[in-house]
Amino acid sequence: MATHIALLRGVNIGGNALKMERLRVLCAELGLANVRTYVQSGNVIFEANGSAAACGKALEQKLIGETRLPVSVIVRTPAELKKVLGKNPFPEAAIKSPAGSARPKTAEPFKLYVAFLATAPTKAALKKLDVISAGQDQFHVSGKEIYIHFANGYANSKLSNNLFEKVLSTRATTRNWNTVNKLYELTAM
Question: Which of 29, 44, 134, 181 stands the most exposed, by the fewest C-beta atoms within 10 Å?
Answer without folding.
Answer: 29
